[in-house]
Amino acid sequence: MKQFEAKTLEEVYELASNEFGCSITQLNIDIVQQPSKGFLGFGKKDAIITATPKYNNNRRRDKKPREHKFKKKDIKIEEVSKKIEDSNKEEQRRAAQKRRRDEKRKEQPKLRDVPNVESKEKIFDNFYGEDASKNEIAKIVVKKDKQDILNEVDAGLKSLFEDTCYGIENIKVEFYDEDTLYIEFTGDDSALLIGKEGYRYKALSYILFNWINEKYGLMLRLEVAEFLKNQETAIYAYLEPVIETIKEKGSFKTKPLDGILVHIALKKLRDEFPEKYVAVKTNIRGDKYVLVNEYKSKEQ
Length: 300
Known about the structure:
Blueprint: E1 2-6, H1 9-20, E2 27-33, E3 47-53, H2 80-107, H3 117-125, H4 146-161, E4 170-177, E5 180-186, H5 201-216, E6 219-224, H6 227-249, E7 252-253, H7 260-272, E8 277-282, E9 288-293
Parallel strand pairs: 5-6
Antiparallel strand pairs: 1-3, 2-3, 4-5, 7-9, 8-9
InterPro entries: HP1451_C, Jag_N_dom_sf, KH_dom-like_a/b, KhpB, KhpB_N
Protein name: Protein jag
GO molecular function: RNA binding
Protein backbone atom coordinates (compact mmCIF):
# COMPACT_ATOMS: atom_id res chain seq x y z
CA MET A 1 0.00 0.00 0.00
CA LYS A 2 1.30 3.42 -0.96
CA GLN A 3 0.11 6.93 -0.32
CA PHE A 4 -0.08 9.56 -3.04
CA GLU A 5 -0.73 13.31 -2.90
CA ALA A 6 -1.52 15.86 -5.61
CA LYS A 7 -3.63 18.99 -6.19
CA THR A 8 -6.59 17.14 -7.77
CA LEU A 9 -8.04 13.66 -7.75
CA GLU A 10 -7.24 13.25 -11.44
CA GLU A 11 -3.58 13.98 -10.80
CA VAL A 12 -3.30 11.76 -7.73
CA TYR A 13 -4.97 8.88 -9.61
CA GLU A 14 -2.45 9.41 -12.41
CA LEU A 15 0.40 9.17 -9.89
CA ALA A 16 -0.89 5.87 -8.53
CA SER A 17 -1.48 4.47 -12.01
CA ASN A 18 2.07 5.35 -13.12
CA GLU A 19 3.57 3.99 -9.92
CA PHE A 20 1.99 0.55 -10.27
CA GLY A 21 2.09 0.50 -14.08
CA CYS A 22 -1.58 -0.34 -14.49
CA SER A 23 -4.97 1.24 -15.01
CA ILE A 24 -6.74 2.83 -12.06
CA THR A 25 -9.47 0.21 -12.49
CA GLN A 26 -6.87 -2.38 -11.39
CA LEU A 27 -6.17 -0.55 -8.12
CA ASN A 28 -7.82 -0.62 -4.72
CA ILE A 29 -8.09 3.07 -3.81
CA ASP A 30 -9.05 4.71 -0.51
CA ILE A 31 -9.51 8.50 -0.39
CA VAL A 32 -7.76 9.89 2.67
CA GLN A 33 -8.43 13.57 1.98
CA GLN A 34 -10.64 15.37 -0.56
CA PRO A 35 -9.03 18.32 -2.38
CA SER A 36 -10.27 21.82 -1.50
CA LYS A 37 -9.54 25.19 -3.12
CA GLY A 38 -10.15 27.04 0.13
CA PHE A 39 -11.06 30.72 0.21
CA LEU A 40 -8.58 33.31 -1.08
CA GLY A 41 -5.82 30.76 -0.65
CA PHE A 42 -6.66 29.90 2.95
CA GLY A 43 -7.67 26.36 3.86
CA LYS A 44 -6.41 24.90 0.57
CA LYS A 45 -6.02 21.11 0.66
CA ASP A 46 -4.46 18.57 -1.72
CA ALA A 47 -6.01 15.25 -2.64
CA ILE A 48 -4.51 12.30 -0.71
CA ILE A 49 -5.20 8.62 -1.45
CA THR A 50 -3.79 5.21 -0.59
CA ALA A 51 -3.62 2.57 -3.33
CA THR A 52 -2.73 -1.10 -3.70
CA PRO A 53 -2.83 -3.22 -6.88
CA LYS A 54 -5.56 -5.82 -7.19
CA TYR A 55 -3.18 -8.48 -8.64
CA ASN A 56 -1.06 -10.83 -6.42
CA ASN A 57 1.77 -9.09 -4.62
CA ASN A 58 4.23 -11.87 -5.67
CA ARG A 59 3.55 -11.21 -9.38
CA ARG A 60 6.32 -9.22 -10.98
CA ARG A 61 5.50 -6.16 -12.95
CA ASP A 62 6.76 -6.22 -16.49
CA LYS A 63 6.09 -2.58 -17.19
CA LYS A 64 8.30 0.21 -16.00
CA PRO A 65 6.77 3.16 -14.16
CA ARG A 66 5.77 5.85 -16.60
CA GLU A 67 6.86 9.45 -16.28
CA HIS A 68 4.50 11.64 -14.33
CA LYS A 69 2.57 13.39 -17.09
CA PHE A 70 -0.76 14.88 -16.18
CA LYS A 71 -3.14 14.81 -19.14
CA LYS A 72 -6.80 15.66 -19.37
CA LYS A 73 -8.76 12.42 -19.38
CA ASP A 74 -11.78 11.76 -21.51
CA ILE A 75 -13.60 10.43 -18.45
CA LYS A 76 -13.83 12.98 -15.61
CA ILE A 77 -14.19 11.69 -12.06
CA GLU A 78 -16.84 13.53 -10.07
CA GLU A 79 -17.25 12.61 -6.47
CA VAL A 80 -20.73 12.46 -4.92
CA SER A 81 -19.59 14.60 -2.03
CA LYS A 82 -18.48 17.34 -4.43
CA LYS A 83 -21.83 17.25 -6.25
CA ILE A 84 -23.69 17.59 -2.97
CA GLU A 85 -21.46 20.46 -1.90
CA ASP A 86 -21.98 22.29 -5.21
CA SER A 87 -25.72 21.68 -5.03
CA ASN A 88 -25.91 23.14 -1.53
CA LYS A 89 -23.95 26.19 -2.63
CA GLU A 90 -26.31 26.72 -5.60
CA GLU A 91 -29.38 26.46 -3.35
CA GLN A 92 -27.86 28.97 -0.93
CA ARG A 93 -27.09 31.34 -3.81
CA ARG A 94 -30.67 31.13 -5.13
CA ALA A 95 -32.12 31.66 -1.66
CA ALA A 96 -29.96 34.77 -1.21
CA GLN A 97 -31.10 36.13 -4.59
CA LYS A 98 -34.75 35.53 -3.66
CA ARG A 99 -34.29 37.39 -0.36
CA ARG A 100 -32.75 40.35 -2.17
CA ARG A 101 -35.62 40.44 -4.70
CA ASP A 102 -38.20 40.32 -1.89
CA GLU A 103 -36.46 43.17 -0.08
CA LYS A 104 -36.45 45.30 -3.27
CA ARG A 105 -40.18 44.67 -3.80
CA LYS A 106 -40.91 45.86 -0.27
CA GLU A 107 -38.92 49.05 -0.84
CA GLN A 108 -40.74 49.90 -4.10
CA PRO A 109 -43.89 52.06 -3.80
CA LYS A 110 -47.16 50.24 -4.39
CA LEU A 111 -48.84 50.88 -7.72
CA ARG A 112 -52.33 52.22 -7.87
CA ASP A 113 -55.09 49.69 -8.25
CA VAL A 114 -55.88 48.96 -11.89
CA PRO A 115 -59.41 50.02 -12.81
CA ASN A 116 -61.85 47.15 -13.09
CA VAL A 117 -62.43 46.87 -16.83
CA GLU A 118 -65.14 44.28 -16.33
CA SER A 119 -67.21 46.69 -14.24
CA LYS A 120 -66.84 49.34 -16.96
CA GLU A 121 -67.95 46.81 -19.53
CA LYS A 122 -71.08 46.13 -17.51
CA ILE A 123 -71.79 49.86 -17.33
CA PHE A 124 -71.46 50.03 -21.11
CA ASP A 125 -73.80 47.06 -21.57
CA ASN A 126 -76.32 48.59 -19.16
CA PHE A 127 -76.31 52.03 -20.77
CA TYR A 128 -79.86 51.35 -21.86
CA GLY A 129 -80.55 49.42 -18.66
CA GLU A 130 -83.94 48.64 -17.17
CA ASP A 131 -84.05 52.10 -15.59
CA ALA A 132 -81.66 54.59 -17.15
CA SER A 133 -82.44 57.14 -14.46
CA LYS A 134 -80.92 54.84 -11.84
CA ASN A 135 -77.79 54.20 -13.83
CA GLU A 136 -74.59 55.17 -11.99
CA ILE A 137 -73.46 57.22 -14.97
CA ALA A 138 -76.42 59.57 -14.51
CA LYS A 139 -74.96 60.56 -11.15
CA ILE A 140 -71.70 61.79 -12.70
CA VAL A 141 -71.49 65.53 -13.25
CA VAL A 142 -69.32 66.88 -16.04
CA LYS A 143 -67.45 69.78 -14.47
CA LYS A 144 -65.41 70.88 -17.48
CA ASP A 145 -66.61 73.17 -20.20
CA LYS A 146 -67.91 71.36 -23.29
CA GLN A 147 -65.41 72.99 -25.62
CA ASP A 148 -62.55 72.05 -23.29
CA ILE A 149 -63.73 68.43 -23.34
CA LEU A 150 -63.92 68.42 -27.15
CA ASN A 151 -60.43 69.89 -27.43
CA GLU A 152 -58.92 67.40 -24.97
CA VAL A 153 -60.58 64.37 -26.57
CA ASP A 154 -59.60 65.52 -30.06
CA ALA A 155 -55.97 65.97 -28.98
CA GLY A 156 -55.97 62.60 -27.23
CA LEU A 157 -57.33 60.79 -30.30
CA LYS A 158 -54.80 62.42 -32.60
CA SER A 159 -51.98 61.45 -30.24
CA LEU A 160 -53.29 57.88 -30.11
CA PHE A 161 -53.65 57.32 -33.86
CA GLU A 162 -51.18 59.71 -35.50
CA ASP A 163 -48.33 57.16 -35.55
CA THR A 164 -50.40 54.28 -36.95
CA CYS A 165 -50.13 53.05 -40.52
CA TYR A 166 -53.82 53.75 -41.17
CA GLY A 167 -54.83 56.55 -43.52
CA ILE A 168 -57.34 58.39 -41.32
CA GLU A 169 -58.18 61.77 -42.82
CA ASN A 170 -60.19 63.22 -39.99
CA ILE A 171 -61.55 62.34 -36.56
CA LYS A 172 -64.75 64.18 -35.76
CA VAL A 173 -65.51 64.88 -32.09
CA GLU A 174 -68.76 66.56 -31.04
CA PHE A 175 -71.61 66.24 -28.55
CA TYR A 176 -74.42 63.91 -29.66
CA ASP A 177 -76.57 65.06 -26.73
CA GLU A 178 -75.99 66.41 -23.22
CA ASP A 179 -74.66 63.10 -21.90
CA THR A 180 -73.13 61.52 -25.02
CA LEU A 181 -69.99 62.25 -27.01
CA TYR A 182 -70.00 61.45 -30.73
CA ILE A 183 -66.74 60.29 -32.32
CA GLU A 184 -66.45 59.49 -36.02
CA PHE A 185 -63.47 58.04 -37.91
CA THR A 186 -63.31 58.70 -41.66
CA GLY A 187 -60.72 58.06 -44.35
CA ASP A 188 -59.65 55.38 -46.80
CA ASP A 189 -58.27 53.10 -44.08
CA SER A 190 -60.77 53.85 -41.32
CA ALA A 191 -62.59 50.55 -41.93
CA LEU A 192 -59.34 48.70 -41.16
CA LEU A 193 -59.59 49.91 -37.56
CA ILE A 194 -62.51 47.57 -36.92
CA GLY A 195 -61.65 44.81 -39.40
CA LYS A 196 -63.87 42.72 -41.62
CA GLU A 197 -67.54 42.84 -40.59
CA GLY A 198 -66.56 45.14 -37.74
CA TYR A 199 -65.32 42.44 -35.36
CA ARG A 200 -63.03 44.97 -33.61
CA TYR A 201 -65.73 47.63 -33.25
CA LYS A 202 -66.74 46.50 -29.77
CA ALA A 203 -63.13 46.41 -28.55
CA LEU A 204 -62.46 49.93 -29.87
CA SER A 205 -65.71 51.13 -28.29
CA TYR A 206 -64.70 49.77 -24.87
CA ILE A 207 -61.25 51.35 -25.05
CA LEU A 208 -62.59 54.80 -25.88
CA PHE A 209 -65.59 54.47 -23.57
CA ASN A 210 -63.50 53.55 -20.52
CA TRP A 211 -61.34 56.63 -21.10
CA ILE A 212 -64.17 59.10 -21.79
CA ASN A 213 -66.53 57.80 -19.13
CA GLU A 214 -63.81 57.65 -16.47
CA LYS A 215 -62.54 61.18 -17.13
CA TYR A 216 -65.65 63.10 -18.19
CA GLY A 217 -68.61 60.98 -17.07
CA LEU A 218 -70.00 60.86 -20.62
CA MET A 219 -71.42 58.10 -22.78
CA LEU A 220 -70.05 57.33 -26.25
CA ARG A 221 -71.49 57.01 -29.72
CA LEU A 222 -68.79 55.70 -32.06
CA GLU A 223 -68.98 55.73 -35.85
CA VAL A 224 -66.28 54.11 -37.97
CA ALA A 225 -66.61 54.06 -41.77
CA GLU A 226 -70.44 54.20 -41.44
CA PHE A 227 -70.46 50.88 -39.56
CA LEU A 228 -72.89 52.18 -36.93
CA LYS A 229 -75.14 53.70 -39.60
CA ASN A 230 -75.32 50.40 -41.50
CA GLN A 231 -76.03 48.49 -38.30
CA GLU A 232 -78.88 50.86 -37.45
CA THR A 233 -80.35 50.52 -40.93
CA ALA A 234 -80.29 46.73 -40.70
CA ILE A 235 -81.84 46.55 -37.22
CA TYR A 236 -84.51 49.12 -38.05
CA ALA A 237 -85.58 46.99 -41.03
CA TYR A 238 -85.82 43.98 -38.72
CA LEU A 239 -87.81 45.90 -36.09
CA GLU A 240 -90.53 47.22 -38.44
CA PRO A 241 -92.69 44.04 -38.34
CA VAL A 242 -91.70 43.51 -34.68
CA ILE A 243 -93.19 46.88 -33.72
CA GLU A 244 -96.46 45.98 -35.49
CA THR A 245 -96.60 42.67 -33.64
CA ILE A 246 -96.08 44.39 -30.28
CA LYS A 247 -98.90 46.81 -31.05
CA GLU A 248 -101.21 43.86 -31.73
CA LYS A 249 -100.16 41.39 -29.01
CA GLY A 250 -98.63 43.72 -26.41
CA SER A 251 -95.41 41.75 -25.95
CA PHE A 252 -92.53 40.30 -27.94
CA LYS A 253 -89.09 38.73 -27.60
CA THR A 254 -86.55 39.52 -30.32
CA LYS A 255 -84.15 37.06 -31.83
CA PRO A 256 -80.65 36.88 -30.27
CA LEU A 257 -78.73 40.03 -31.16
CA ASP A 258 -74.99 40.50 -31.12
CA GLY A 259 -72.77 43.44 -30.20
CA ILE A 260 -74.11 46.91 -30.81
CA LEU A 261 -77.32 45.58 -32.37
CA VAL A 262 -78.88 44.79 -29.01
CA HIS A 263 -78.33 48.38 -27.82
CA ILE A 264 -79.74 49.87 -31.02
CA ALA A 265 -82.82 47.62 -30.79
CA LEU A 266 -83.34 48.43 -27.12
CA LYS A 267 -83.24 52.20 -27.67
CA LYS A 268 -85.55 51.99 -30.69
CA LEU A 269 -88.14 49.89 -28.85
CA ARG A 270 -88.01 52.11 -25.78
CA ASP A 271 -88.64 55.13 -27.96
CA GLU A 272 -91.60 53.35 -29.59
CA PHE A 273 -93.10 51.96 -26.35
CA PRO A 274 -92.22 54.24 -23.43
CA GLU A 275 -95.13 52.85 -21.38
CA LYS A 276 -93.96 49.24 -21.65
CA TYR A 277 -91.27 47.24 -19.92
CA VAL A 278 -88.35 46.97 -22.38
CA ALA A 279 -85.13 45.32 -21.22
CA VAL A 280 -82.17 43.23 -22.36
CA LYS A 281 -82.27 39.60 -21.27
CA THR A 282 -79.86 36.67 -21.62
CA ASN A 283 -80.86 33.09 -22.44
CA ILE A 284 -79.24 29.91 -21.12
CA ARG A 285 -76.73 29.91 -24.00
CA GLY A 286 -75.56 33.42 -23.11
CA ASP A 287 -77.23 35.11 -26.10
CA LYS A 288 -78.78 38.54 -25.54
CA TYR A 289 -82.23 39.57 -26.73
CA VAL A 290 -84.73 42.37 -26.05
CA LEU A 291 -87.93 41.59 -24.17
CA VAL A 292 -91.01 43.83 -24.50
CA ASN A 293 -93.84 43.29 -22.05
CA GLU A 294 -96.49 45.08 -20.08
CA TYR A 295 -94.83 47.43 -17.60
CA LYS A 296 -96.40 45.65 -14.61
CA SER A 297 -94.26 42.58 -15.47
CA LYS A 298 -91.26 44.46 -14.16
CA GLU A 299 -92.61 44.23 -10.64
CA GLN A 300 -93.17 40.47 -10.82
